[in-house]
Amino acid sequence: MNVKQPLIYTLSGSLALILSTNTSATSFQILEQSPAYLGQAFSGTASYVSDASSIFFNPAAIGELEGSHLTVAGNAIFTRAKFNDQNSNTNGAPGKTDETGFVPNLYWTYPVAERLTFGLGVNAPFGLSSKYRDDWAGRYLATYSNLELINVNAVAALDLGDYWALGIGLNYQRLDVTLESRVDSTLGINPQPATDSSARIKGDDDDLVADLSLYFKPSSYTRLGLVWRQGGEFDLSGDAKFSLNALCSPGAGYPTGVPPAPTTGTICAAMLNARAGDAKTSIALPDTLTFSISQALSERWWLHVDVARTEWSSLQSVNIINTGNNLTISELELKYKDTIRYAVGLSYHPGFAWTWRFGVAADEAPQTNPELLNPRIPDQDRIWFSTGFNYELSKNVSIDVGYAYIKVDKSRIENTELQTGHYVEGEFDASVNILGVQGNWRF
């Protein structure tokens, strides 16, 4: 049973976006940092170097690139999630979210010495955009969510000799969040979309984080990579605002007992007004550790493997606090667990301008308990199917196109709010399609 604060449980649903966001990878991680790697389901990301996007996937390997390189890319992420209501009691309509997200990537490398290469990347490793109708069954949990994390990554790669290279990087990250939900003005007595109040939270913060990487190339046929990326720690500050329906006002609504007991409207207005204003919370995004190996099977075929661990267990619970009176606006219980992602891919170079890529991957979700899931991201385990190609327009110019279909297991939600009696039960049927295009230039 997912129990939250009276009335304000809408805000813990809102906060779930910060910690439960998604478009492609599980929870709120976005892997789409390179359409080239997208084509092989992000296998061999730390071991196979083809363009400047290695600034993100393995900075130690950018010394493999000859000359200065520029990569500019964009990824369109088409997310569909339909809610099949089974036993909800909130008098709402069917729910779905069909949102399209765009993830840009920009990378530039420059060799400053024989054994030293610098790089600069701009990308968005976390994010979400989702929107439900204001009258759907789960409106007290989520109606609108927008999360953007911009990452600016400066790296240096040092050739250590004897087949080894070392990479170190510094990342500036900026996190901005906007979240909206509805509030039942009748405290569960007669929930109706027409009488709902509304809630909106905005917050932002920034942080500096590091990354370390190794690249090992014992021969021209075998390459290995290991990358650690630190998760940011954000002290989000912003505000919580409420728009009160006429039934959420002193003296309005339904009686809660024999007079002078307050009406539901009196309680609703008092609770929301007390919690409106400046708000804060702290979250720690997960560290990631990725190991990759790429092995030549022949002159034309390469095999790529990725094993990536994401330390989601850093996210167990989060409190939202009103900074003016220290009232707890909401406490969100997550109980995330660490996950591992497995990916296998192939690349085929037939001997002229084309390179073809294929891949599959299995991605674990950090939380699948129906009592803890939130509709801002109907998360579950998923399988990737990817393909793509590179085409060399000239010696110094090429393009990459990648496509992936992600099959998401059905996720079930069984959310109960004890104070109001609201109950949301059903299944989400979700899928994701991703199309990425990038251009590469060598100078």
Architecture overview:
The protein is mainly beta. It has one domain: Beta Barrel (Porin). 7% of the residues lie in helices and 54% in strands. It has a 14-stranded antiparallel β-barrel with strand order 1-2-3-4-5-6-7-10-11-14-15-16-17-19. The N terminus is likely disordered.
- Alpha carbon gyration radius: 24 Å
Please state the structural category.
mainly beta
- State the CATH superfamily name: Outer membrane protein transport protein (OMPP1/FadL/TodX)
Q: Please identify the top-level CATH class.
A: Mainly Beta
The name of the CATH topology is: Porin
**Helix/strand order:** HHHEEEEEEEEHEEEEEEEEEEE
CATH architecture label name: Beta Barrel
Helical stretch count? 4
Low-confidence stretches: 1-22
Q: Largest sheet, order of strands side by side?
A: 1-2-3-4-5-6-7-10-11-14-15-16-17-19
- Describe the main β-sheet briefly: 14 strands, antiparallel, barrel
- Calculate the mean pLDDT score and round it: 91
Rounded to the nearest angstrom, the distance between the terminal CA atoms is 59 Å
Instruction: Specify the helix fraction band.
Output: under 10%
Number of strands: 19
The percentage of residues in β strands lies in over 45%
Can you tell me the number of structural domains? 1
So what's the overall shape?
Answer: elongated
